[in-house]
Known about the structure:
The protein is an alpha+beta fold.
Amino acid sequence: xxxxxxxxxxxxxxxxxxxxxxxxxxxxxxxxxxxxxxxxxxxxxxxxxxxxxxxxxxxxxxxxxxxxxxxxxxx
Length: 75
């Protein structure tokens, strides 16, 4: 999941070298944290959170076969 979020985020931002994605496990859930430059925050979130919601939907669909809950947090 980390690689998927990283590829999507780097395609959206102006400063792809500042994109950092980390994974941490909390119980049965996997938390994917996305860190971007402050200037790129709006591009990753989108108007009314539409881009962020789309990223979460893609990750949820990709993790469906793994029987694991995956949450994406944009920091």
